[in-house]
Amino acid sequence: FNNSIDLEISKSNLGEILIEGKTKQVYSFKSSDTKHHDHHVYVLSKDRITAGDGVKSHQLVGKSILSTQTNCAIFEYLNAIGIRTHFVSRVAESNTDYKRSFIAKRCSMIPIEWVCRRIATGSFLKRHPHVPEGYRFAPLKLETFFKDDANHDPFWSEETLIGAKMNIGGMVITAEHVQEMFQITKLVFEVLERAWQTVNHSLIDMKIEFGVCEENGIKQIVVADVIDNDSWRLWPNGEKRLMLDKQVYRNMDNSKIDEDALNLVKANFEIVAERTQKLFNSLIPIRPDMTKIEGVIAPTVAIVVGSPSDKEYALKIKDTLMNRYKIYVVDIHVSSAHKSTQKTLELAAQIQQWPSCKVVVAIAGMSNGLGPVLAANLPIPVISTPPTTDVSILQTDIWSSLRIPSGMSTATVIGADNTAIMCAQIVGTSDAFIWSTIRTLQTYQVIRLIHSRI
Question: What positions does the domain PurE occupy (predicted)?
């Protein structure tokens, strides 16, 4: 599902440096580059590592490549699950500096660091000395800090954020925008945490930033800047002593940092870059081209209809699973538990052979025997869904789905969309990408309500 295409960029098309920070430069594009000039910027990382608001700073050859590799893998994942970001693409290999640069949407940055914590550690303990290290925040702990190195990035309360009425790129930041960014901060943490959990790594805390960009005349808030090994605490096996993030550098005595110390820091960055690239690339599903595949593809969801007349309803569920939730291998079968019981049992055996199949949908109208028969003969969840939302029909037929014998279980869901949601939620219990896609849809639904006016 990766829509990102590495872009060919000529250095002769780069314009002025729009902004230069401690670890990166952001270039505009010349007006002659009509494809990128008004909409995109070129972000180039530096071989520099800093801490303590820049008080501690060292040259770290190769860091720019490692940070870019980590950042691109993360943002490609966030884009794939539907989070709005500034990231456009990597730079094509034919370009100079392609390993340490990427293309982003042109944004006006909001000068706030949004911090999300799962575990109490680090600076939080200094500000809250009575909280024991290791305290687990559920819900997540959110904090915001105004970006001001001279004053050590002071903490800003939610009320301060709202009261500041910052004008960013022509958008005045309102209470609703603040709530939106809190929601997205939690979302980004949750989806990255879920991904790292699949390889037994604990995401302890992280910081992100937002920008305001304009597309088709509409200003919107997007996740911006970079997310790399400077942005988080990451503990393999949940053990602090195994930390791989920039905290290793922060903990070093500045007067004793030598080549060996920097090599240790770089080695950690190399490990994280490699693991990030491998993990997040592996999680993004690739939509198979069914016309080029020979043989059988193991399904993720199996849909069984009791009659060919229910095909349209089944296709609605399948289309929603594929297009909204990125569940691409969905099989549809026809079998009536009443009229062809033996065939239905054989079909159950066929479905059961695939470990990939996480849920079965039984579509039957009058006198639903299909769902209970499949549920009694399959060790995976079965959802019964009548192919109608007509209340008068449901009042008569729904009981055959609800009142079933003991020793079996089938959920009953009304409506194609809701059935697809439940399928995705079941699949998502063992698939970080699907889980994250659902979480993203839920979060943006909340955000739409936050901005709703009556």
Answer: 299-449
